[in-house]
Design goal:
three-stranded antiparallel sheet, alpha+beta, single chain, 3 helices
C-alpha cells in the first residue's frame, strides 16, 4: 500500500510506482487490514506464508477482502 490523495493505493504484485489496483480511504484502513488478515487465516494452507497465500488467491480476492464492509 502507498499513500495517495484518496487514502491508500493498493498495488497487488507490483512495484509501488505502479498504478494502484484499488484505493482504500484512510478512515477504513484498520478495518480493511483486518479483513485481509481474516482472508489469510481462512485460506492459508499448512506451512504457507501469508504472501504465498495471497499470491495463490490472486488480486481479485485480495482487493475484495480489503474493500469489504
Amino acid at each position: 500500500m502507498l499513500g495517495a490523495p484518496l487514502g491508500y493505493g493498493l498495488v497487488v504484485n507490483g512495484p509501488a510506482s505502479a498504478v494502484p489496483n484499488a484505493y482504500i480511504e484512510q478512515k477504513t484502513i484498520k478495518t480493511a487490514i483486518g479483513h485481509l488478515g481474516a482472508l489469510v487465516r481462512q485460506n492459508k494452507q499448512a506451512g504457507e506464508s501469508a504472501l504465498s497465500c495471497l499470491t495463490r488467491l490472486g488480486p481479485d480476492a485480495t482487493i475484495a477482502a480489503l474493500q469489504q464492509g
